[in-house]
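Preliminary data (for renewal application), guanosine-5'-monophosphate complex.
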Amino acid sequence: MTDCLFCKILAGEIPSDTVYSDSTVTAFRDINPVAPTHILVVPNKHIRAVSELEEEDEQLVGHLFTVARTLAEEEGIEESGYRLIINNGPDAGQVVFHLHLHLIGGHKMQYPMG
Ligand code: 5GP
Ligand code: ZN
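Predicted structure:
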């Protein structure tokens, strides 16, 4: 997708602080972190949003979560805790329409959400 910000990051056209990459998933630090750890885990394949997921993407989505878990361990927040967020659509505040899992942690967060 030529006009997608995250596809440009994945192609190396826009710099990012990449912390993990494999053949299907890449993770980089959010440019505007809301917590000491704020990493975006994204599929290398362009998928607009959860609402666009297909059955064939199930393994890929599972991989986003296991990569996030591993990164949480590397960040040292596996015991203090962390939050995983996927925004879908306008009411959820999705601004980048390339599926991404937010890994957020490193301080006490507010609850409830919404
Ligand atoms: P959304 O609201 O779509 O779930 O989250 C998009 C996220 O992308 C936001 O947290 C925002 O700070 C982050 N973001 C926007 N532009 C860039 C960028 O150019 N580089 C990086 N690393 N993150 C970005
Ligand atoms: Zn994209």
